[in-house]
Amino acid sequence: MTEEIIIAGFGGQGVLSMGKILAYSGIMENKEVSWMPSYGPEMRGGTANVSLVISDERISSPIINKFDTAIVLNQPSLDKFEQSVKPGGYLLYDPNGIINLPTRKDINIYSVEATAKASELGLAKVFNMIVLGGFLKIKPIVGSEYIRKGLEASLPARHHNLIPENEKAVEIGKELVKEVQKI
């Protein structure tokens, strides 16, 4: 199993953190992992993305042009990465702020209303974990027990009290994800 993923959105949405937690979770499950962030000079509001490979085999290169899955959290990211999903691949998006919906007919498309749910719960900081839960529901590439280990490895010790809240957000995301188009 090899999964090549792009996660993209605005800075401040937890794009890089989501990728890092997923990467650490893969490492904790003894998988091969590549994590390559890319972001603009802005701290918040600029674009950010992370390409991630999780595999049972050695990874030959962290450079990826076509992805098995794209997780997009804003319109510019959808516009940029929809065409980069391999035919038969997966696109997961949060519909908040998406004006032009995905148009491809040769990929599986899912949505997860993470922004709305995080706002409803008053937990804006777990938005990215709701999205991660949606992804793991459709593509369980790492076991749930390793998500906690990934959180422990990627969060500073002073934030470990937030781990249960993050785990709950992952479970909420698994319940919220909706199939838009299945090929």
Order of helices and strands: EHEEEHEEHHHHE
CATH topology: Pyruvate-ferredoxin Oxidoreductase, domain 3
Strand content: 25-35%
* Overall strand count: 7
How much is the radius of gyration in Å?
15 Å
Averaged pLDDT, please? 89
Shape descriptor? globular
Protein architecture, described:
This protein is of the alpha/beta class. It has one domain (2-181): 3-Layer(aba) Sandwich (Pyruvate-ferredoxin Oxidoreductase, domain 3). The protein is built from six helices and seven strands, in the order βαβββαββααααβ. It has helices spanning 15-28, 75-81, 114-121, 127-138, 144-154, 163-176; strands at 2-10, 32-39, 47-55, 67-72, 85-93, 108-111, 178-181. Strands 2-3-1-4-5-6-7 form a seven-stranded mixed β-sheet, with helices on both faces. α2 (75-81) links the parallel β4 (67-72) and β5. α1 crosses α5, α3 (114-121) packs across α4 (127-138) and α5 crosses α6 (163-176). The longest helix has 14 residues, at 15-28. The chain is globular, with a radius of gyration of 15 Å. The mean pLDDT is 89.
Descriptive labels:
6 helices; 36% helix; Pyruvate-ferredoxin Oxidoreductase, domain 3; alpha/beta; 183 residues
Tell me the layout of helices and strands.
Elements: E1 2-10, H1 15-28, E2 32-39, E3 47-55, E4 67-72, H2 75-81, E5 85-93, E6 108-111, H3 114-121, H4 127-138, H5 144-154, H6 163-176, E7 178-181
Parallel strand pairs: 1-4, 4-5, 5-6
Antiparallel strand pairs: 1-3, 2-3, 6-7
Quick summary:
The chain has six helices and seven strands; from the N terminus they run E-H-E-E-E-H-E-E-H-H-H-H-E.
